[in-house]
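Complex 249.
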Amino acid sequence: MFKSLLKSVFYRFGYSICKVRPVAAAGAAGADAGGTRLMPLIHARSPYQDFPLAEYPPDLQGWGSQSVAFDTLLARLKPRRIIEVGTWKGGSAIHMAKVARGLGLAPEIICVDTWLGAVEFWTDQQDPERYLSLQCRHGYPTVYYQFVANVLHEQCQDLITPFPQTATIAALWFRRYGVSADLIYVDGSHEEEDVYADLVGYWDLVRPGGVLAGDDWGWDGVRLAATRFAREQGVVVTQLADKWYLEKA
Ligand SMILES: C[S@@+](CC[C@H](N)C(=O)[O-])C[C@H]1O[C@@H](n2cnc3c(N)ncnc32)[C@H](O)[C@@H]1O
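Predicted structure with S-adenosylmethionine bound:
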């Protein structure tokens, strides 16, 4: 009673509860060098627990998911934490998990996605790779469950943490918890302003010496946003196989 009264008084004066409540775990996540697992901070219960795996046969359809660029970047960065923005059915995240294992690494790969698709997923109702793959049930996409199933089929649940959120809100969460990452892979929306917003939102989360990489240089929106952002930051865009990346000094 007293707590909720106090809360509404603070709200009235323009303070969010976060400004008055210390986030207990933030220190732990923020202070470490990437070793703290974020899974228990994001999920009170494991998303993999009691999953009805038999209902979802493996389906790893994706785009540029198995690129050799991941092998090169992981071997170089030896990441302890990876953030992926845009995961879809898990192709690239699962590939990174397997490459990491092959290198004797065990990074946590946090997958940020709404699993609602980008704009091009909603423009052609006959497209088997996009609209139809959203697997709408009563009008709402269920492709997230295919992703969870794929992670389990490939036995990567120890490394992959789903974060079902918008890129924007997840970036705010990472900031609030003082989270940084060695590698951030941006493959969400390909619209120029969205890509630019992702770069602004995630660049500060890249650890010094780390890399922000992206897909789809062939898309105008991606190319224009990355070029603009790199120019503003005074960094160069490097092409690597079918990916591009920016290095944090
Ligand atoms: C091209 S797919 C990702 C492909 C994936 N990396 C692979 O290897 O197959 C783009 C994904 O970004 C997600 N997405 C688009 N805009 C987003 C946003 N603003 N926030 C979170 N996820 C978003 C979509 O739901 C979709 O799953």
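The mean pLDDT is 92.
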